[in-house]
Amino acid sequence: MRTIRRDGWTAADYDSEQILNQLGHRDAAARVNRARRPHRLRRAWRTLRTRLHHPATAAPAAGVDWAAARAAAEAVNRGDTGEADRIVQATADPRTTALAAFRFIGVK
Q: Within a 13 Å sphere around the CA of 21, how many CA atoms are in the beta-carbon half?
């Protein structure tokens, strides 16, 4: 899709802004920009889903490491998905620990 503004907006972004303006929103451009921001939870879920579908070659499941799950979730909440991945991969059962981490994502 071709961009029509220097900041990388697409035609769909411009259309969204025009519709929001017609609906009476004063901050239409800000709303479109906010919608374009990366979403930490979506990125973390895609990364986790990709990793979970690869068969594990390690030892059998050892259960959830709740401390590691909470630490990984805190890393995702900070936006550091690489650190979260390192924390989860260091556990005995990365798959179940990663799934358990989703209970704590977004929790302060």
A: 8
